[in-house]
């Protein structure tokens, strides 16, 4: 257990006593390992999602290039609310 308490608060100096928070504590070590593992997995997942998104965009670009009847009507759909996007999708399906 880590206790933080202020000691010797005189002359504008503050000392903090971290009793029980030694760097060699197994709990601190495992917490650090878990934090680094979580951070690393977050980066891996974000990179995979970005790669998948880029692949989808490349495929869609190719489909749009191949279809001469495609319109630019949906170019700014990213800025719309979910309800507006769903409405646009319904119009395209019809």
Key descriptive features of the protein:
mainly alpha; 94 residues; 2 helices; two-stranded antiparallel ribbon
Oligomer: single chain
Largest sheet: 2 strands, antiparallel
Distance between the termini: 63 Å
The amount of beta strand, in percent, is 5-15%
- Strand order within the widest beta sheet: 1-2
- Taking all Cα atoms into account, the compactness measure Rg is 27 Å
- What is the domain tally? 1
Topology, number of strands: 2
Average pLDDT, to the nearest integer? 77
Order of helices and strands: EEHH
Model regions low in confidence, pLDDT < 50 over at least 5 residues: none
Instruction: Tally the helices.
Output: 2
> Could you estimate the helical fraction of the residues in percent?
55-70%
Overall 3D geometry? elongated
Describe the structure.
This protein has 94 residues and is mainly alpha-helical. It has one domain. Helix content is 56%, strand content 11%. The chain contains two helices and two strands. Strands 1-2 form a two-stranded antiparallel ribbon. Strand 1 and strand 2 form a beta hairpin. The longest helix is centred in the middle third of the chain and has 41 residues. It is elongated, with a radius of gyration of 27 Å. The termini are far apart. The model has no long low-confidence stretch (mean pLDDT 77).
């Amino acid at each position: 257990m880590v206790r933080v308490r202020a000691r010797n608060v005189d002359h504008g100096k503050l000392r903090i006593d971290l009793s029980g928070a030694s760097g060699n504590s197994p709990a601190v070590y495992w917490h650090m390992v878990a934090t680094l593992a979580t951070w690393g997995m977050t980066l891996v997942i974000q990179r995979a999602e970005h790669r998948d998104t880029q692949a989808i965009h490349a495929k869609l670009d190719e489909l749009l290039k191949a279809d001469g009847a495609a319109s630019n009507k949906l170019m700014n759909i990213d800025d719309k609310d979910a309800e507006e996007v769903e409405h646009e999708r319904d119009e395209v399906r019809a």
